[in-house]
Amino acid sequence: MKIERFEDAKAWQIAxxxxxxxYEVTSSGAFARDFRLKDQIRDAAGSVMHxxxxxxxxxxxxEFIRFLRYSRRSAxxxxxxLYITLDQMYINADQFRLIYDKATxxxxxxxxxxxxxxxxxx
Length: 122
Description:
By secondary structure, the protein is an all-alpha fold. The chain has one domain (9-119): 23S rRNA-intervening sequence (de novo design (two linked rop proteins), Up-down Bundle). 80% of the residues lie in helices and 0% in strands. It contains five helices and no strands. It has helices spanning 10-25, 29-33, 35-56, 61-87, 93-119. It is elongated, with a radius of gyration of 15 Å.
């Protein structure tokens, strides 16, 4: 399938799912009242999908790759912040694993996208 819009990219779709999961767990309980951490993890999750979208219209593959790398780093940031949320008992182990794995899936798809863009120039 040809990707004609950023919404067509599987990496963006998974990043959107990641963001939805993060928003769900940060919307209630003590997590909802920890404004700084809540905002940080939400921003990082949103950044995963936003950088894919922004890179899609960057104008060159090299620029797109740069944004994809930002996206990947944001997914790692979400994963790191998840440890804080687990340690603070804002989420349980199942929620941690679900979101952590979704971030891993997003990173793998972003890595695949980067590889594809690199190969298209070889």
